[in-house]
Amino acid sequence: MADPSLAASLLGAGTERLLRERETLGHLFESQVTHDCFVYAEAARARGVFHYRDTKGRDEIDIVVEGTDGDWVAIEVKLGQAAVDAAAHNLLRVTAKFERPPAACVVVVPIGVAHTRGDGVHVVPLTTLGP
Q: Domain 4-128 falls in which CATH fold?
């Protein structure tokens, strides 16, 4: 999996352009988080990193990391704190449909202080991810 900075470079997407084009920035940020999850999952000898979308296309989870023991973590990626509440609600709603609940629900944001919300969802900045 390639580093998303390569895509940004090919697009000629510098800071000013990405700040104007939030959707492109969001895709690149999600790609960066996914890339990092692949690297850390490999280091932790996890089974894999996946994306979940139901057959009707209504429910999705940006990133699912599954360990070799079958435990899994559901991750949503958001660009800002304003989107955390909706992302946490979505994670809890979608994961409630599974027979086996996730070991953790996580919302990854670019910056901020890592914390656990009252509903149990972890909010972590990208820089705190690790194996």
A: Trna Endonuclease; Chain: A, domain 1 (3.40.1350)
